[in-house]
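Meet today's protein:

…
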Amino acid sequence: MDSCLVSRRDPELRATIVSRTPLLYAEGADHRADRPAHVRAGSSLSWFNQRLAVVQDDANFIALIDPPSGHVEALTLPRGHEGLRQFDDLRGNKRHKLDLEACLTVPGCGGESLLVLASGSKKQRDAVVRVDSDGRLRLQRAPELYRRLRKTEAFAGSQLNLEGAIYRDGSVRLFNRGNGEARDGLQPVNAICDLDWEELKDYLDDPDEKRVPKPGGIRRYDLGNLRGVRLTFTDATVSTQGLLYVASAENTEDAVSDGPVAGSAVGLLGDDGEARWTALCEANGSLSAAKVEGICTGAGAGEIYLTVDADDPAQPSELLKVALTGPWD
């Protein structure tokens, strides 16, 4: 599959930041749990049990936000390498992070469940987290799932890097971020694929006996560029306007290293293949330099929430309230 759909920049669309809220845990830091006082990264965003769930690629915590009050709680994940829960270059342990980059809400027993997926950008980044509506949590490895996705070259391209996921009509749609480097004759690709949710659930419940679902509905996209830097998928959500996505223009040579960010875009993917986008702007109309990695619907019409990853463990992630104006439908 060499062809790809082109997302065009639509001058009639607007995405404007209305407010910014630093994400600080209500209980502050907990050194015994190796938890900082703030949410370190906003890697993906989803409504879960009437709160916004934020996953972090470099910290073993899920943040639960009540947007009206700004109250932020921490859902603690199991400890990682050497009993730690924070991973970065300053500690010299970045290679051991789970790299949780995508989350979505799926049907569960007795209510909804939160499903969190690692990026798969390295072979050891194959973790899946399930959180049930009653708070029960399970973290497991899913190497066969990631192996199959990695081998599906039409979707993964030169390097698998899951950054977004949605649930719709019985399927889980995954978003691959094409910010890797070319290798073995393959190019990095921005792509989507669909997995049957019941098959995926059965596999996760019993990975030794159940087969990994086959990826289908694969589409590749050229998302355009911002200030000369290629845009790549970072998250997606289902809204009344349609399937919204966010993409960042990060100048990096591979899917693992961070780089300078030229800005981010909010876009719309149509079921017919049509795609269009606009650059995220500050309240004064200037182009925002934020690296947006999470998107979710807001409380009102034409309102969305975004999360920012500053790629700095000392800086709190921000929750942005954004107004969408123009012909988004």
